[in-house]
Amino acid sequence: MIFLGISPLLSLSNPLKMEYRIDLERLKQSMRRLGDKDITMDKPGYFGQWGGAYIPEVLYETFRELREVYAKAKADPAFWQEYLDLMSSYSCRPTPLTHAENLSRHFGGARIFIKREDLNHTGAHKANNVMGQGLLVKRMGKTRVIAETGAGQHGVACATMAAKFGFACTIYMGEEDVHRQRPNVFWMEKLGATVVPVTTGSRTLKDAINEAFRDWVSNMDTTHYVMGTVCGPHPFPEMVAWFQSIIGQEARKQIIKAHGNLPARIYACVGGGSNAMGIFQGFLADPSVELIGVEAGGKGLDTGQHAARLASSDASPGVAQGYKTMFLQDSDGQMRDTHSVAAGLDYIGVSPLLTDLWEKGRVRFAAATDQEVMAALDLTIKKEGIIPALESTHAFVQAFKEAGELSGDQAIIINQSGRGDKDIFTIAHAFDDPSWKEFIRKKGEEYAAR
After folding, report:
1. Number of CB atoms found within 10 A of residue 389's CB
2. Strands (E), 11-131
3. Which domains does the chain have, with CATH numbers?
4. Catalytic site residue from 148, 211, 295, 384
5. Residue 165 host element (H or E)
6. What are the residues whose beta carbons fall under 8 Å from the beta carbon of 408, sequence distance 6 or more?
7. 8 A C-beta contact, residue 425 and residue 182
8. Which of 38, 213, 346, 393 is deepest in the core (most CB within 10 A)?
9. Would the CA dihedral through 9, 24, 238, 129 be positive or negative?
């Protein structure tokens, strides 16, 4: 394994010290050693030229163990059946595919279907991954799990898994996201997890990942890091995508049964990219199905206040947090601040699997602004009685823009990766709801009087 002194990972000389400058010459030398032109999909850990495992020496054995346990589980049909049984009995799978009849009539084009990951246990697709990794943790004999979280859905799912399997659990969450997603923090703590607010950097998801890596270096013998998305060092991108592939497997069968044919397009929001890879995998081999990933356009791509890596021209190739992909960084390799109304999309990088598919033209990327997201959320609530998470609503935005381009005998699927309950404070504030403000004011006065 190769470790590069690149922001923001761990220092070999001092595993608990963060390095925030990039050694450009060392990067060039290492890339020459890797031989970018030679990297192909069949090279372990790489998807085209993207991916890899840029880790400190101290974690080498931990990653070797994880790769071996994962490879054995993947080759064992009994493991996948155990996983399916767990997800059906504990996590409400398969989740339904809902025909959004009112929205379909409203836009007058393609039939709109919604894959309802919001009805998965804990309210999002995140349980698919954490329950699978929980089974791997049992095989490894470890007793503690740690995780990063942005929107809090992965944190809640991880805390839920830890409660069910009897693991100790620590969740790292940027201080900014703790404020935005207080309901999820409440449930993580009630589930028995220790939630650690991260006060360094931009105090969001990328900083939570850094702190989780720090913890893992110090406690790797007893602890497994439950990476929440299809990013990070190998084997995390591949492994998380495998567990999330259950979404696409279900959706393919469901759309053929409901529509009689494959969909014309599939839309999914993209932060790290796990829900997108989950549903896309069911249709990657079908060239007639267009796959669209929708990133956080924030306040607009021309403002710099967004988190669009592949839908904008602001990202560039880099290595950080253990893998190579397109990052929002400056010319010195310093990671830029990002912005999104959705905490779960507020991330500097993107999955190496998706970057490879984007580079090959298999997945198209778009971006939705905060303002567009709130409008689409309002419409979806009123037309269908469904409340998508702010992250998921980014996919709704692009689907709504394009549904009218298609004919009535075509179908599209929107992957609703989560439900909007967790976003109540952000949504109520964005809608400037006076009754909500009054409720919060009175509650504040009650607490202050105690």
Report:
1. 27
2. 18-19, 46-47, 50-51, 97-99, 111-116
3. 94-123+245-430 (3.40.50.1100)
4. 148
5. helix 153-165
6. 109, 110, 111
7. yes
8. 393
9. positive
- What is the β-pairing status of strands 411-416 and 265-269? parallel
Is 148 assigned a catalytic role?
yes
What does the alpha-carbon distance between residue 349 and residue 315 come to, in Å, rounded to a whole number?
A: 9
Residue by residue, DSSP assigns 109-160 as SSEEEEEEGGGSGGGBTHHHHHHHHHHHHHHHT--EEEEEESSSHHHHHHHH
pLDDT digit string, tens, across residues 390-417? 999 999 999 999 999 999 999 999 999 9
Which of 7, 104, 115, 126 is catalytic? The answer is: 126
Q: Is 245 a catalytic residue?
A: no
Record the tokens describing residue 190, joined without a space: 């009630």
**Catalytic, out of 117, 340, 417, 422:** 417
State yes or no: pLDDT of 29 exceeds 80.
Answer: no
Length of the chain: 450
Q: What share of the chain is helix, strand, coil (3-state, %, to 5)?
A: 50, 20, 35
How many angstroms separate the Cα of 248 from the Cα of each of 36, 134, 259, 280, 445? 31, 21, 16, 6, 48
- Does residue 34 register a pLDDT over 60? no
Which residue, among 303, 345, 351, has the nearest Cα to 326 in the 3D structure? 351
Q: Is residue 8 scored above 90 in pLDDT?
A: no
Q: What is the pLDDT of residues 171-191, one digit of tens each?
A: 999 998 898 888 899 999 999
